[in-house]
Amino acid sequence: MVVVLAAMQEVSSILNPLLLAAFLAIASATPLNWMQRQGVPAPLAVLVLFLIIGMFFFLIFLALRGAVETMAAQAPQYQAHIGALFGELREYLVGLGVPPEALPDTLPLPAVGTFADAAATIAGGLTQFTAATFLVLLAFMFLLLEESTLPGKFNAAFPRSRRTRVRMRRFMQAVDRYIFIKSATSLGTGVVVGIGLFVIGVDFPVLWGILAGLLNFVPTVGSFIAAVPAVLVALVGGGWVEAIMAVALYVAVNVTVGSILEPRLMGRSLGLSPLVVLISLLVWGWVFGPVGMLLSIPLTMIAKLALEAQPATRWVAVMLSDRAD
User: Which parts pass through the membrane (predicted)?
Assistant: First the structure.
């Protein structure tokens, strides 16, 4: 296993686009099957999903690029506000009895040009992201075209083993259901967070909504990571009231989605142990980088579903679960 993972790490630049394309194809399998049941020809259904996903990536690119450029332009205002907040905090601590000489007079902040350089670097990375997106979408389209032939391939590959075909079919259905529900709840999380932050008045609500939706795939840790930059921007751009409202929004959304909605839709049996979540982040992050960290939980969940499909390996799936049954 170590050798295989190390080999995958060496070719991660090739596997990452294919991994993203496979994830998108699995998430799109449910709407693809629905359109085909409604009488839409398979090539047309694939084309519709291809255009929808392509437009989604294009809008994400525009939102990220606009947020980075605006953030660099507003860097002087943010620095001034941070200095004012630090001054208020210093006065408050002195009022509590802290010796003034024990506190710094000013907060050391990077120069404004540092923010501009960082923005230029991020913008260049987004351009490379756009080029890689084309490969992802191309592989996504071919994987969708391949999806309709899977039942026939299962029958041809296992002509005398009906039990194996049933297990493979159940495994694929479980994976499709998990990825589709997780993608739908993540999309809902991003939309609600983006709209909520827009109403509160936090800068770059679209950016924070995208981040919240993507990191919803990482339980517990992801929601915290997504909330920190948005709350800091709310504090710097608005004030304490906006920051507290942003924290309340994130807590309400993540409790509703993570503790109520997802368990009810998926079932508690699809949970992972917190230790397994941490190990998954470390292992898949080491193998595939940021893409691996983003998809670490779906990848581990697919492995857990595959282990559950075989009686001989079900005990491993039980050890990965967050329950003892």
Answer: 14-32, 44-64, 118-145, 178-200, 206-236, 273-295
